[in-house]
Each structure stands twice: as C-alpha cells, then as structure tokens.
Amino acid sequence: MSRRPGPRHLTAARLAPRRLSLADTLRVGSVGLRTRPARVLLSALGIAIGIAAMVAVVAVSASSQAAFNAQLASVGTNMLTVTPGRDFTGEPAPLPRNAAEMVRHIAPVENAAATGSLKDAKVYRNDHIPKAASRGIGVLAAGLGLPRTVGLHMAAGAWLNGAQGRYPAVVLGTTAAENLGITTPGAQIWLGERWFTVTGILKKAPLAPELDSAALIGWDAAKTYLGFDGRPTMIYTRTADSKVDQVRGVLAATVNPEAPNEVTVSRPSDALTAKQAANQAFTSLLVGIGAIALLVGGVGVANTMVIAVLERRGEIGLRRALGATRGQIRTQFLTESVMLSALGGIGGAALGAGASAGYALSQNWQVVVPPWALGVGVGATMAIGALAGLWPAVRAARLAPRAALSGP
Amino acid sequence: MTPAPAGAAPTGPAPTEPALVELEDVDHVYPGGVRVLHQVSFRVDRGELLAVVGPSGSGKSTLLNLIGTLDVATSGTVRIDGHDIAGLTENRLSALRARSIGFVFQQFFLADGVSALDNVADGLLYLGIPRKERRARAARVLRRVGLGHRLDHRPHELSGGEKQRVAIARAVVGDPPLLLADEPTGALDTTSGASVVELLRELNAAGTTVLVITHDQELAAALPRRIRVRDGRITEGVPR
C-alpha cells in the first residue's frame, strides 16, 4: 500500500452509499442459493410442483379444447334430430311414416334421413349363443341416405346399396362390431332369428353416438324379414348453417302438424358442447388445486428464507461492517427469495408443459401450451417469492450489526 | 500538517491535524440499564498502532462497536475520520464503514464455498467498484499478505492463520484509514498469531492506523501504545 498517512477529510455530503449494479445485486442475491444447493432444490421443488400442476391443467384443457373445436368443425353444427315425444297421456307418440319426406320439403333442409328402431330384434355372433347374451346391440332400420346426412364414414366395407337394402345385409356401428368381435365385412351374424351378412363397419359417429352400438339394416329388409311397421324413431336433418334456428322452429310442426308438442327436436352438437363445457368447468377446479399447491410452495420458500436469515446472522453482520446499508441487505434476501421461487417456477413450467405435451400426444391431440399460462405461471412464482421473502428480508435488514456479529 | 512517523505514536501535544478516532466523555448504557462505559475519552491519531486491552466484560467490545460505528453511544461524542457519528444517518454510517473502516474479527467471517479471491473482493462490493477491478485489487492484496498461491482456495482449504490473512486482506483492500481488529489472534496458535501481528505491523508501517482490541496482555505489550479498560473506565494510556 502506497498511501501515506495524512488528512483525508470526507464531508458528510460525500458519505453517500454506492448502489450495487444489477449484476452485483443478482450475484449477491444468489450467494445463498449457490452455497446450499440441496435446500434450494427442495424449496424450489415445492413451487415447481404447484406451477407444473397449473400449467399442465391449463395446457391439457387447451389441447382438449383445440381437439374438440377441430372435431366440431369436421362434424358440423348444422344437424338437427327429431324424435318421438310423449302425448298428453304420457304414452310415446310415434312419428308419422312419411315424416322424413315432410322434413325434406322444408326449403333450407339440405337432406334428411330416418332410422326406425326394431325393439324386438336381437343380434348374436351366431345361432348358438344363448338368448340372454344379446350384448345390448340395437337393430335399426336405416334409410339409404343416412351416411350423407349424419356424416358417417366407413371403417371397413361399404354402406348398404339399393339391392342390399332389400336383402338380409347389415352395417355395424363401431361398438357393435367390437362387441360381436367382427373386424372385416363378409361375416354372418344371427339377427332377428336369421343370418345377415355384414357389408360394412362404421367409424365412430360423434354426433350420433346411438349409431355406434347399432346394427343397421335396410328399410325394406326390416319390413320384409322383421315385421317393421315403417314408423321412424329418429330423423336426422342437415340444414344450411345460417338457417338452423329457423328450421328448428318449424321442424316439429312439419313432422306432426296435428300435435307438434309431441315431437322432440334437438341439436346433437349442443350436447357435445355442453359436455365439453362441463369438462372445462372441472379444469378450473384443478387449477384451483394447483394454486393451493403453489401457495404451499410459497410457504416453503418463506420458511427457507427465515432459516437462512437465522443461519446467516454472521454474514449479515459482516456485510453491514463492510458497508452494506439496510436497504442492500433487504434487497439481497428479497432477491434471493425471488430467484429461489423463479427457479421453481421455470422448472415447474417446463415440467408442466412437458407433461401436458406428452398427454396430448398420447390422445392424438394437437399440443397446445398457451404462452400466457407459462408467463403467468413464472410471474406468479416471482410474486410469491417476493411476498414470501419480504418478512425475512425486513428482519435481516433490521438486525443490529453488533448483535449479528456476536451471534453464533 | 506533519505526517506522523509510521509505527510510532506522536509524543508532543495534540497535533493540528484532526484525530482519526476521537471519543469525548462517552457513556454507554445497554437497554435494561447496564452501564458499560463511564466517561471514556481518548484519541487515536493517524498512523498509530495501538491496543485496547482489558479483561472480558470490561467494555472493550462495546468500544469496538462504537469506534466501528456498529452502535451509537448513549451520550458523549464519537468522531471517526472527522465525522460526528451521532449526526449521521444509518445510510451515511454504512458509507463511512465502507470507506474508512476495515474490520477483522476473531471468527474471520469468511464465506464458505467462495474462493479467497472473491472473499477479499467482497471487501470492495459496497464501494460500488466494478467486479473486474474488485478481483484485480483483491489479487494484489492477497499477494501482499503472502497468499498469492491461495487465490482460488476456499476457506475450508486454508489454515487458521491463512484464513485470518484473507480476512485482513478483505479489511484493507478498500484502503481504509482505520483497521479495527477484534481479538485477531484469538483463534490462532502462537506461530500463526505472531505472523498475523507481524502483518498488522507491516500494514501500519505502510500507513494504516491499526487498533487491536484484545484481552491478551502479551499481544498488547508488543504494540507501541496501549489503552487499558476495566469496568468501563480507562485506567491507563490516556492522556499520553
């Protein structure tokens, strides 16, 4: 040291503490994190679990919503169905035989098709199966235009053609085929006490789930072999998108002009939407649980910081002796708390995004991780870190240097 | 304006230059009413090397806290480097400690898991000096105290004597006029203790005022000036 002793007057005005640079603030704030990695990892894990849960729930829900929207777009929302209601005595009120034809006469209706339920007909894999084991497959007489109206697609084989509609031929819904153990067309099944040949198997029908578990035969074949009375039990219609409400208003009166109140009209896409909305409502509950986990994580961080302040009294005293102001001590511990928490937040966001991406892929959904969820997640952890660190930091700053240095 | 000869206490009447440390009629009472200092007055000029010596409970630690501006006297005047402590705000006291006082403690207070170099560089942190310069100056000072080969060693890899040298380097890296050493040899064996005292002498010879607080009579006897404290009163050493 070359300094020579001599007068060195510092006026009080020049005695202003220097500010730490941002880099130094972060460096000092991370001292505690670097020297106690195990404890840091565990405290950050608490926060990470909370954030991972919330991000995963939001992302899974967003992916599911995206998949649902795509599905709805592909099946369309312009299908209306008509089913028999009940008359004033409470008895089922059957639809008129020509109901489908009447519906087709409504101008904006693009097409319509009917099915008629054959309640007494049962379906078996072969004629040796005991009568009681009918597996809940319903037999429906179907108009030939049904696939076009409902938007059915074949998983295998073909839909009934005009000739097959008059002969013992059958198309199976996806669940029905599965229950019967039939995977390829050409097989014979025992339907209504006689053999029918399977010509095709349908794909899943999201708008008409009742068809999934059905065995569909031609309208005429139903009359010829199973004594079908020709009364439809369900009419499917497709309407120009802009006219759906209008058609809905006149459908009942068209089908049954004498008793329109005995007819039930519904829009299957509404049911799908309602079901999806119910799933989404469940999502907010899960997000709430994630938020609780996050709060518990915040308490963990606060606990870690309180312990850190108790353990590091010597360090605090030394820093005060080196010239740290109370504000600088407070900033140090606050920074440490926010960094600790942010560490958990970033880890948790990555974990949650990864988990939800894995789940979405396993469901064949498009992966949607909303950026706002990641941003809000990490932001929330930093806020929690600041909140959790506030009290310990204030305590650290209030510690008298004399007491801090004489402590253990 | 005559610079005091290094390592020797001035012998004449009070010089015209203001004292580095000046206490006037200082009383100190701890909360609860324990009176630990009674009318203490003394001054330390620039360039001195002295010991404040006394048994435990004599009030010497309180003196260290008051001179180090870690505590404020109940009554009386404490002036450090020309500043009346009672008139300074908390923040100005912090700035005064950063610039004018280097501390050395019996327990070293080195940061675990941090290299000797960075421990010493932290001595400049609160002076607002950029990191690169902090480290460069820390390396220079460590070489001066004979630890040029230990820059990257962590405290647990150093001997007690080496740790205290690192702590002394940290205290003087900011070139403060006053070095306060509280029982600097208290945790060391005789050989290490002697080498630490030797280092303090060297620093004093280079111009730093060194005030050692100790209960060790032998250590105190080896220094040019002693202020003895007992039961909160000065019993020897004032006036010089």
UniProtKB/TrEMBL annotation, chain A:
Annotated signal peptide: none
Pfam family for this entry, one: FtsX
Keywords: Cell membrane, Membrane, Transmembrane, Transmembrane helix
ABC3 transporter permease C-terminal domain span: 289-400
Localization of this protein: Cell membrane
Main location: membrane
Residue ranges of the TM segments: 40-62, 285-310, 338-360, 372-394
Keyword ATP-binding appears in the UniProt entry: no
Topology in the lipid bilayer: Multi-pass membrane protein
Domain MacB-like periplasmic core residue range list: 41-248
Family of this protein: Belongs to the ABC-4 integral membrane protein family.
Protein name, UniProt field: ABC transporter permease
Record organism: Streptomyces rugosispiralis
TrEMBL record, chain B:
UniProt name for this protein: ABC transporter ATP-binding protein
Domain ABC transporter as annotated: residue spans: 21-238
Keyword Hydrolase: no
Domain of life of the organism encoding this protein: Bacteria
Keywords: ATP-binding, Nucleotide-binding, Transport
Molecular-function GO terms, alphabetical: ATP binding
Stored Pfam families: ABC_tran
UniProt xrefs under InterPro entries: AAA+_ATPase, ABC_transporter-like_ATP-bd, ABC_transporter-like_CS, ABC_transpr_LolD-like, MacB-like_ATP-bd, P-loop_NTPase
